[in-house]
């Protein structure tokens, strides 16, 4: 194989491998405190950025905490994963800037990976299927 063709083939293979790495879904439970974004018809259109968390009961119910935008960080809603139709995990380390960036739509250089919901939505049958909001 000529050098030019071999280089092109290697570049194509490398590109395919990198694409697979970026798009491979996250399996299992995301880290508690991780920055995630969710889609849910009950929340309206568009992504909602929050923090992955769990309840204190065993086995746990997993939820996403949605926060108000700056300057005051207050819990806006606690969304059970049972009503989430799609979740993505941020490339940012588990909430290194949680207080400042939980509600931010994006952080420079941030990438998102899909999370497989089947393993976290079936943890227990009695997890709330409603959104808890502050009053």
How would you characterize this protein structure?
The chain is an alpha+beta fold. It has one domain. It is 21% helix and 26% strand. It has a seven-stranded antiparallel beta sheet with strand order 6-5-1-2-3-4-7, with no helix packed on it. The chain is globular and about 60 Å long. It starts with a helix and ends with a strand.
Structural class: alpha+beta
Largest sheet: 7 strands, antiparallel
With strands numbered from the N-terminus, the spatial order across the biggest sheet is 6-5-1-2-3-4-7
> How many domains make up the 3D coordinates?
1
Radius of gyration: 18 Å
Q: Which series of helices and strands comes N to C?
A: HEEEEEHEHE
> Helicity range of the residues?
10-25%
Quick structural summary:
With 135 residues, this protein is of the alpha+beta class.
What is the secondary structure topology, with strand pairs?
Elements lengths: L2 H21 L11 E5 L8 E7 L7 E6 L7 E6 L5 E5 L7 H4 L10 E4 L2 H4 L10 E2 L2
Antiparallel strand pairs: 1-2, 1-5, 2-3, 3-4, 4-7, 5-6
Main traits of this protein?
135 residues; alpha+beta; 7-stranded antiparallel β-sheet; 7 strands
């Amino acid at each position: 194989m000529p050098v030019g063709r071999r280089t092109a083939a290697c570049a194509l293979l490398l590109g395919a491998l990198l694409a697979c790495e970026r798009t491979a879904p996250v399996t299992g439970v995301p880290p508690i405190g991780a920055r995630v974004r969710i889609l849910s018809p009950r929340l309206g259109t568009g992504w909602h950025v929050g923090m992955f968390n769990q309840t204190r009961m065993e086995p746990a119910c997993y939820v996403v905490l949605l926060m108000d935008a700056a300057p005051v960080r207050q819990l806006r809603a606690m969304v059970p994963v049972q009503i989430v139709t799609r979740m993505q995990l941020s490339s940012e380390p588990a909430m290194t800037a949680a207080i400042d960036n939980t509600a931010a739509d994006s952080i420079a250089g941030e990438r998102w990976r899909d999370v497989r919901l089947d393993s976290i939505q079936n943890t227990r049958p009695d997890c709330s299927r409603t959104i808890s909001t502050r009053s």
